[in-house]
Amino acid sequence: MSNTTALLTLSRRRMTLSAHTPREVVVPLVTPVLFALVIAPALGSVVGTLHGGIDYMTFIALATVGLLIPINTMFSGVGVIVDRQAGAQRELLTAPMRRQLIPLSNLTVAVMLTALQIVVLVGAAALRGAKFNVDGSGILWFVGAVLFLTIGMYGIAETLANRAPSQESYIGAVPAIAIVPWFFAGSLFPITTLPTGLLVIAKVLPLTHALALIRYAFLDHRGTGLHDIWGLSNTTEMAALSLGVVALFAILTTILSVRVFSRSVLQ
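The structure assignment produced for this chain is given below.
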């Protein structure tokens, strides 16, 4: 069996397991959609605009993309645990294919489902009144940030799923990984309002770079969020640096997840 055929077969299997009921696609959308449709407009009516004339409602609506991706990818990790403990993973390991294709197929499905959910989320925010400023290059920056952040977060989810002894211990770690960083990544306010110590941490978080890129792509072409991170004069250069940070995060966590999976199946 070729690697491509095996990957497609495994991906179809994972898609069947992950999205065989609408609930498994809709549940991760609930909290981000609540922020985009209810909380963002409410905050927008109170705050109005940020410094520089940035519409606060749209500012928050785009931040929900950075909330959806970690939540959805961490939910995907639950399926990995179920497959490992009570599913067909042991049988798959005896199939004539590279073992590393199993976590890569899981990643493929996670990216596809997340992309679908982000389209729904952004569309809902636009219908609710978010004022997106989109052009061709902006779409490319947006897709790059979203893709690499999704890959990176799924790498964490896959790694934790293959290390966690039970679903309970895995779920207990989800809020700390998927939700807590969101509050320090410039989601609700610019990171420059944070105390010095937290500002340093915020600048290191891949989510901070991803959100700055997303807003640069769809809202603020001046790159205010990117300037808060890098402090340079060339906006395109800062965008490329932030995209590089998120891409490096994706590569490292994917390599880690494959190695942890390979070791776990030998135990």
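Interim note for the steering committee: The mean pLDDT is 87. DSSP finds twelve helices and no strands in the chain.
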